[in-house]
Design goal:
alpha+beta, 6 strands, three-stranded mixed beta sheet, three-stranded antiparallel beta sheet
Length: 149
């Protein structure tokens, strides 16, 4: 690893620690030339599949967009941030475990709805009403009846 201070190509690892969550490795390094220390982080590089939209366009998977959708549906609902993060992690795990380079947006939407149904029924109805493009009150009634069962 090249030193960020003097650009010397030879640095030595002084200390290595695994992060508390185990998601990355933190390394303290020291430059062989200027002897300054710096920290590097080692994380796995994950390759999520592309999302195929309903109109056929392909889009890059964006974790922020998934989180925003869940947070919007769960706004002012009694669901903790940890529960939301866990739901996102389960959805992303499904995305990675599919082993495909592309996945249809409706499949991703169904996974989101399944997670919301487990977390909060009101949030599930909120999301489903937009996701399924409800046209009238009967669509809502049908969904609410389904959730009550």
């Amino acid at each position: 690893m090249k030193c960020p201070f003097c650009s010397h190509p030879d640095t030595q690892v002084v200390e290595t620690r695994v992060a508390e969550e185990g998601d990355f490795i933190r390394r303290r390094r020291q430059c062989g030339a200027c002897e300054k220390r710096f920290t590097t982080y080692e994380r796995p590089e994950l390759s999520f599949p592309s999302i195929i939209k309903k109109d056929g366009r392909r889009a890059e998977y964006k974790p922020d967009k998934l989180a925003a959708s869940l947070n919007l549906a769960l706004r002012k609902r009694p669901v903790s941030t940890e529960q939301i993060d866990a739901a996102i992690a389960r959805i992303e795990e499904k995305l990675l475990n599919q082993g495909q380079r592309e996945i249809a947006s409706n499949r991703l939407g169904e996974w989101v709805m399944r997670e919301l149904k487990k977390l909060d029924k009101v949030a599930y109805v909120r999301f489903a009403s937009v996701y399924r493009s409800f046209e009238d009150i009967d669509d809502f009634k049908t969904l609410v009846d389904e959730v009550r069962r």
